Amino acid sequence: MHSIVFIGGGNMASCIIGGMIDQGFDPLTLGVSVPSEQSKERLSKAYNIAVTSNNNDAIANADIVVLAVKPQIMRNVVLALAPALPKNAVIVSVAAGITVESLQSWLGSPRAIIRAMPNTPSLVRTGATGLFANDQASQLQKATVSSIFEAVGYCCWVESEALINAVIAVSGSGPAYFFHILDIMPSVGQELGLPEREARKLASQTALGAAQMAINSDQSPSELRDQVTSPGGTTERALNTFRNEGLESIFRQAMNSALARAEEMSKDFSA
Questions:
Q1: What's the rounded mean pLDDT across residues 184-188?
Q2: Which of 161, 188, 216 is the last residue of a domain?
Q3: In a domain, 271, yes or no
């Protein structure tokens, strides 16, 4: 049984821990290190796992160390952890902008490192996570890390670290794109006469249903779209407006902007 320790116990770490326990992970194999007494009490009561405020004590016997702290403090956290890190432990970082090269430099010696980019729907166990491993990570380590993130949704591996930035542009930032759409649609619905609550519920339920259909169907989203688009009907008129106003181009620009910012962040937090 693997010993898995989280450094940091914020929302993302908490939801991953909760998902792991729900999926059958033994709480006795899990631990978390957090600085505040309030957080220690909250996590201990919620999950009945080992909780400490001493990072080095927490990782003493760890097989997997999940770094779930803000990118701005990651360097100092890793430098302090490095001397106490067990030789064969794998490091998993969920921080955007922190490269394997930077982590390797701070650790001071070759280590198995995995970058993970989960998104906020992980909080409701419907997340999407992209994963990248360096050459030192074993297949067993990768399989165990996959099971961690499968506990809160879908995960996939990418072949190059640069593709983690593409993951950020698609799914890492993606929830905000949909939240933006779900802000616009009810607003227009109200302009058209619907009450606010009903407009919001209609838009949200429609997004949920469309996403579920896209996940479960063997057909592509474009095929599903065509099936609900009657020639000369209301949907066709709306879709033509999207095309004429350049919606696809706007999405491409926005996602490429997210990618560019992810690349900038990698330089900002480099060793």
A1: 98
A2: 161
A3: no
User: Would you say residue 195 lies in a domain?
Assistant: yes
Check whether 1 has a pLDDT greater than 70.
Answer: no
> Encoding tokens for residue 2?
């693997």
Look at residues 12, 25, 197 and name the one whose alpha carbon lies nearest to residue 119.
Answer: 12
Round to whole Å and give the CA distance between 64 and 126. 23
pLDDT tens digits, one per residue of 224-249: 999 999 999 999 999 999 999 999 99
| pLDDT value of position 89 | 96
Residue 58: inside a domain? yes
Angle at CA of residue 19, ends 18 and 22, nearest 5°: 90
| Geometric angle at alpha carbon 171, from 271 and 111, rounded to 5° | 35
For the entire predicted model, the pTM comes to 0.92
Q: What is the pLDDT of residues 88-139, one digit of tens each?
A: 999 999 999 999 999 999 999 899 999 999 999 999 999 999 999 999 999 9
**Same domain for 92 and 59:** yes
263 Cβ contact partners less than 8 Å away, ≥ 6 residues apart: 165
Residue 39 maps to which CATH number? 3.40.50.720
CATH number of the domain residue 214 falls in: 1.10.3730.10
Q: Put the strands of the sheet holding 127-133 in their side by side order.
A: 50-52, 30-33, 4-7, 64-67, 90-93, 112-117, 127-133, 153-157
CA pair distance 117, 158, nearest whole angstrom: 11
How many independent structural domains does the chain possess?
2
